[in-house]
Amino acid sequence: MRQTYIVSYDVSNPRRLRKVFKLMRGYGDHLQLSVFRCELSARELFELRAKLGHAIKHDEDQVLFVDVGPAEGRARGCISALGRPYTHPERHALVV
């Protein structure tokens, strides 16, 4: 089962910041500056945490994971916005 996570990071070095951003793009939807919405299986979460653990400096940087629930349950409507409305990204299967 996939869980929805809000992942936010604070990375002090511009080079590491770019590396973390590129890494995160492969796992979720970029919402704002250093904030991503990710739908991950337990395996993908473990993999992401491991990759981020190698990409950051643990005494200078921080990555926060907020578990907002199952991807098909409560998490679908748990993000609200002020100003521009938040739109949930549509997922479509692509057969190649």
Please tell me about this protein's structure.
- The relative contact order is 0.26.
- This protein has 2 helices and 4 strands; from the N terminus they run βαββαβ.
- With about 100 residues, it is of the alpha+beta class.
- It has a single domain, classed as Alpha-Beta Plaits (2-Layer Sandwich).
- A 4-stranded antiparallel sheet has the order 2-3-1-4.
Keyword list:
Alpha-Beta Plaits, 96 residues, alpha+beta, 4 strands
Structural class: alpha+beta
How many structurally independent domains? 1
Named CATH topology = Alpha-Beta Plaits
Straight-line distance between termini: 25 Å
Radius of gyration: 14 Å
What is the CATH first-level class name? Alpha Beta
Largest sheet, in brief, is: 4 strands, antiparallel
Q: Which sequence of SSEs, written as H and E, runs from N to C? A: EHEEHE
Strand-residue fraction?
Answer: 25-35%
- Judging by the overall fold, what is the CATH architecture? 2-Layer Sandwich
